Amino acid sequence: MTAAVVTGAGSALPATIDQDAVWDGFFAGHYAGLRAARRIFRSSGVRRRHAVANPVDEDLSGWGTGARMQRYVEEALPLGKQAVAGALDAAGLSPGEVGLFAVATCTGYATPGLDIRLAGDLGMPADLQRLLVGHMGCYAAVPGLSAVGDFVTARSRPAVLLCCELTSLHVQPARAELDQVVAHALFSDAAAALVVEPGARRGRRLAAVVARTDASTADHMTWDVTDLGFRMGLSPRVPDVLCRHVGDVVDQLLTGAGLRVEDVAGWAVHPGGPRILDVVRDELGLGEDRMAASRRVLAEHGNCSSVTVLLVLEELADVDGPVVVMAFGPGLTLYAALLLPA
Ligand code: COA
């Protein structure tokens, strides 16, 4: 079977905002009277993050969804282009050689979409296959990588995966709802891309993917399209549910490859929030040092939804040996991938 090997990565980050400055300059007023809000911002594990729309400069909370989608296209195109160009460059591949271009996003939609516009802009071939993965949420990079990997294996042609999320376009009106506070304290904007090539001798081979959905908890995380942007519903029980399943998922992922938890050299765990990393660490019996890359990404970039785990993977670029990529989201769903040295 032809191996699908990740040979290049690239990312693009919009303007950096400081967590304290964005609290003082906007959310302290937005959530005035909601005492828990300040504490949640402080305990978010986020020091800096990125926003195409800094709420201190412009308040989008009253914007209609149409205006937000228009802004999404304007902002996502240059970021997506930079991330994909960077990944192709790192792989030493030209846009004309790409066989499949997959785009995952849950924060903006348009037709023609990012996939069509970026493919044209970057000079990808006219017979390019495309795939647009919409609304899966924070774990979309992993099913995206799985689909791209299957294409590479089946067709022996290179593929590119782009994740692009602009959560700052979905600031919600001021209401005393703690799940909104949690979302607004954690989420951030970014784009990141991977190039996957058939049979390459350098890079990381996609060895396995495991998915687990607990449909009994489908109401724990929602992402509703409203007239005022997209609104997140988030239960405080999310970390506990992930805790119940993470051991089995990792076991299934590693057992198939004859590996144990101790054999894993790098953990790229989606930092949905600090408590998510705490429960994953404790449930798998890992040392805090194994969470360092995820904590760093949360602190310096925030939770960039589907992009986040790719930023963690970039942090682990120099790690030699098996790497586990793991992300979580609506379903509730856990998605994990095993990458082995090519
Ligand atoms: N919705 C509503 N309230 C929530 C909440 C949520 N999703 N998460 C936490 N809270 C509430 C807690 O119930 C608690 O309220 P209380 O003081 O009345 O008991 C308060 O916020 C503080 O939460 P707690 O977890 O005790 O401590 P904290 O302030 O150190 O951490 C978070 C707050 C949000 C940073 C942390 O709970 C976290 O990381 N949560 C995971 C976020 C998540 O699910 N992300 C998934 C996205 S993929």
SSE topology sketch:
Layout: E1 4-12, E2 16-18, H1 19-30, H2 35-42, E3 48-50, H3 65-91, E4 100-105, H4 114-122, E5 129-134, H5 141-155, E6 159-166, H6 178-186, E7 189-198, E8 204-213, E9 221-226, E10 229-234, H7 238-255, E11 266-269, H8 274-284, H9 292-301, H10 308-315, E12 323-329, E13 333-341
Parallel strand pairs: 4-5, 4-6, 11-12
Antiparallel strand pairs: 1-7, 1-8, 2-3, 6-7, 8-13, 9-10, 12-13
The structure holds coenzyme A.
The site of coenzyme A (COA) has 21 residues, from helix 2, helix 6, helix 7, helix 8 and strand 12.
Describe this structure in words.
With about 350 residues, the chain is an alpha+beta fold. It folds into 2 domains: about 5-200, Thiolase/Chalcone synthase (Peroxisomal Thiolase, Chain A, domain 1, 3-Layer(aba) Sandwich); about 205-340, Peroxisomal Thiolase, Chain A, domain 1 (3-Layer(aba) Sandwich), CATH 3.40.47.10. It is about 35% helix and about 25% strand. It has 10 helices and 13 strands. Strands 5-4-6-7-1-8-13-12-11 form a 9-stranded mixed sheet, with helices on both faces. It has a two-stranded antiparallel ribbon with strand order 2-3. A two-stranded antiparallel ribbon has the order 9-10. The relative contact order is 0.19. Coenzyme A binds near residues 43, 182, 235 and 275.
